[in-house]
Amino acid sequence: MSRNLVVEKFILLYLPWMLALMFQGQPVLSYTIAWLGSFFIFLITLTGQVMPLPADRSFANQIMRPIIIVQIIFAGYMCCTSVFYFMSLLGYNNFTATPYYLPDIDKLKLAAQCQRYYCLGHAAMVSGILAFMRYPEMPKYKIEPGKLAKILYYATIFSFPIAIVFLKIPGMSQFANQFNALSFIASALGLAFAIPQKNSRTIIVCAIFYGLNFYAAMLSGFKEPIILSVMILGVFLYPFYKKVVLVIFVPALLLLFLVLPAYVGVIRQNAWSGQQDANQVTSAALDAAINQGAAADENTWGFLVNRLSEISMFTGFVENTPEKVGFYHFQLIGQAVIVLTPQIFWPSKPITESMVMQRVYDAGVVSPYSTVSAKPAFIVDAYLSWGGWGVFIFLFIYGAAAQLISQKAESLFGGYILGSALVFSGLFQIFWRGLSIEFILNHVVWSYVSMLILAAILRRKNILEPA
After folding, report:
1. 103 falls in which pLDDT band (50, 70, 90)?
2. At 428, is the pLDDT very low, low, confident or very high (cuts 50, 70, 90)?
């Protein structure tokens, strides 16, 4: 493929953003073009029209690589969920138009502007992934095929207690989070391998640990861990049972979106206050989710408008930056570097949450006297640093980092299964979520250290051998 043709195909990624920018004077049209533009980016990248997908595996057997899993979850959540908020600005309630409603033009323009940034960020992130997508034909290390199922089995068993140990050590909670995620991925992947092989012992063990992780997600008070728990198991089972996954898991995910607003509301009201034990709270939350009755539509619509997407908070930042609060430039990057030192070595280290929330207060998005935690997303931090240029540069680096780490994992761990599906998806799950830059950099750096240590241990035990 000639260089000029590659450049032209990459320009296609930015076509929706450029078209939306041309119609910025018409906010509804501009928003619609930018919103649909992300679906266009999904289409031309996932079908290999910009750059062919790696040919070493079928599509179903490489879903956990960044071009698929990171793009679908991160960009899908970032770019596609704002439509309900925009519909509410146009006067819709429960998908029904309000008669004689006069939309606020200024709010429509702000929302359209933020959606254009989402579209630009999506294109930049995918550009970063594709620019570095060079999976090696031969990994540096290999693992015997017969050992693969055993490795997944032991990864499931040991990662969960290791997470608990790190949780008990002051200042080491970030490593606990890493191994919690690794335990969840290992148990789901182990199940997906054991079920077709009908290995009863592995199925039982992996199911137990998967159940423990799912129960922890149910008690977390957050919807994302619950949705991801179901979705990832479906993703791993999909290559073996395509029709079953489509028939069972897709409707299950849609059902979760309907019942989770009421469920997590009860969990937050009771479990977080510590007034009831976990079993009582879970039972009450399930009752509320199943028997919400007439309030179901209102709860679901409120969730879709205000909590599914983060665009309403983004509009607050764009409205006040840089008019009232100047761009931060390198300040947020400097804060992210400070956060890298583990608290066990620096007990008086500034609290990350406080540093992140300060810019929320400065922009007037949330009152300092409020108990709400409204940490900005990664794309918001990108905008706060350098505006539109920040969105392009930060998101390009974001995609490139995810891609390079995935390739490194496959090179170190003998290919896709242990590399991208287990280690990358387990230790670097934060790429799916796009949190504030301080949390992102800290998690990625120390997860990379953990990945190198794990690879060294497996090589020392002769589980991984030079290819």
Report:
1. very high
2. very high
Enter the pTM of the model: 0.91
Peptide bond into 466 cis (omega under 30): no
Calculate the CA 93 to chain-centre distance: 28
Residue 460 CB burial class (10 angstroms; 0-12, 13-18, ≥19): exposed
What number of other Cβ atoms are within 10 A of residue 302's Cβ? 17
pLDDT tens digits for 179-220? Answer: 888 888 998 888 888 888 888 888 898 899 888 888 888 777
Q: Give how far Cα 401 sits from Cα of 18, 343, 395, 443, Å.
A: 25, 25, 10, 13
Name the token pair of 37.
């533009």
Q: What is the DSSP letter of 135?
A: -
Distance separating alpha carbons of residues 453 and 467, to the nearest angstrom: 19
| Of 399, 373, 394, residue with least CA distance to 330 | 394
pLDDT digits over 367-382, tens only? 777 666 678 999 999 9
Contact predicate 229/216, CB 8 Å: no
Map residue 438 onto helix, strand or coil.
helix
Token pair of 114, please?
């933020």
Residue type, 44: I
Query: For residues 70 and 73, what is the distance between their CA atoms, to the nearest angstrom?
Result: 5
CB atoms within 10 A of CB 158: 14
Q: Residue written as tokens 């920040």? A: 390
- Can you tell me the distance from the alpha carbon of 289 to that of 182, in angstroms, rounded to the nearest whole number? 29
Q: Rounded to an integer, what distance in angstroms lies between the CA atom of residue 349 and that of residue 146?
A: 46
* Residue that is written with structure tokens 């009450």 in the block: 284
Phi, psi of 93 (to 5 degrees): -140, 120
CB atoms within 10 A of CB 256: 17
Structure tokens at 303: 């969730």
Segments making up each domain of the chain, as ranges:
3-466
Beta bridge partners of residue 465, listed in sequence order: 142
CA–CA separation, 374 and 44 (whole Å): 34
Structure token pair of residue 438: 């301080």
- What does the alpha-carbon distance between residue 117 and residue 352 come to, in Å, rounded to a whole number? 26
Cβ atoms of 411 and 403 closer than 8 Å? no
Closest alpha carbon to 152 in 198, 203, 200: 203
In angstroms, rounded to a whole number, what is the distance separating the alpha carbons of residues 234 and 222?
Answer: 20
